[in-house]
Design brief:
The protein is an alpha/beta fold. It has two domains: 2-98, no CATH class; 125-277, Beta Barrel (OB fold (Dihydrolipoamide Acetyltransferase, E2P)). It contains ten helices and seven strands. The strands form two sheets. It has a five-stranded mixed β-barrel with strand order 3-4-5-7-6.
């Protein structure tokens, strides 16, 4: 206790010599471990004045905040007087709150759900396969939203079906051939198997659509199954979505455009990945 009192006198005298007055509640916070010069330096670095100033307990704990600079101490004293007279308590508390700033560059309250930042590394075949699988899943989920493709079947199930009926499937175009009779045969595959899609030259609309289909494109098909073959009735893919979206409500058009942007980004990443592997 005596040590604290002795230290308090020392700090008061030191501050007084440097034109700083300390209020009783400020003095009560001073202990034997208080460093007079260090405490003074914390204050003096934030004061632009050579006149007497009075420090109270409200700023004692806040002096350790190194981010506070160029404090208008005259304004602080003026507001303190008004506060003690009961005339303007709000402005005084706002001034005190300024001392409680913890970081000038504090990060915003934003929660990052997922970040695409990834360390550079050597890419191999596994990365290439992983990308194709992700791309396939992304487009597949878009196509599944179409009403015409609600009752989807895997290729393996279609192959094992004995009776003919209207079916729906989604797959990746693995191969494309034009027969001697100008029919088009697509080889479609998913994670369960592969099957041929035969487009007759007599089906003008389907032939026209099939000519625009490229390898590695993910498409949806409704058609009739045969023996290891499907006779298509309609194709559903990126091109189809583009054409149909023009007739939709503006909100639906925006959704389709957003989906197309995702697909374009996936294709762009695919090309870059191929270049890295090469």
């Amino acid at each position: 206790m005596k040590e604290n009192i002795s230290k308090q006198k020392e700090v008061v005298n030191f501050f007084l010599k440097n034109n700083l007055l300390i209020s009783p509640d400020f003095i009560d916070k001073i202990t034997s471990e208080t460093d007079s010069e260090k405490l003074y330096n914390l204050v003096s670095n934030k004061i632009i004045s050579n006149d007497f100033l009075l420090l109270n307990n409200d700023i004692h704990q806040r002096l350790l905040n190194k981010n506070i600079q160029d404090i208008n101490w005259f304004e602080f004293e003026r507001l303190k007087v008004l506060y003690e007279k009961g005339r303007d308590k709000i402005l005084y508390h706002k001034f005190i709150d300024y001392f409680d700033i913890t970081k000038s560059n504090e990060e915003p309250d934003v929660k990052i759900l997922f970040s695409y930042n990834e360390e550079s590394k050597k890419r191999d075949v596994k990365d290439f396969v992983s990308f194709f699988n992700s791309r396939y899943k992304a487009i597949e989920n878009m196509l599944k939203n179409r009403q015409e493709l609600q009752n989807l079947m895997s290729i393996n199930r279609i192959i094992n079906k004995k009776e003919k009926e209207t079916i729906s499937l989604i797959g990746l175009v693995n191969d494309k051939k034009i027969t001697k009779n100008n029919n088009i045969i697509l080889k479609l595959e998913d994670q369960t198997g592969s099957i041929s899609i035969l487009i007759s030259k007599n089906k003008t609309d389907l032939i026209k659509a099939a000519k625009d289909i490229v390898l590695d494109e993910v498409i949806g098909i409704t058609g009739v199954n045969g023996e290891n073959i499907v006779l298509p009735i309609m194709f559903y893919g990126l091109t189809y979505l583009c054409k149909k979206s023009l007739k939709k409500h503006p909100m639906m058009l925006m959704q389709s455009a957003f989906q197309i942007c995702i697909l374009v980004l996936l294709i762009f990443c695919q090309k870059n990945l191929i270049n890295l592997l090469n």
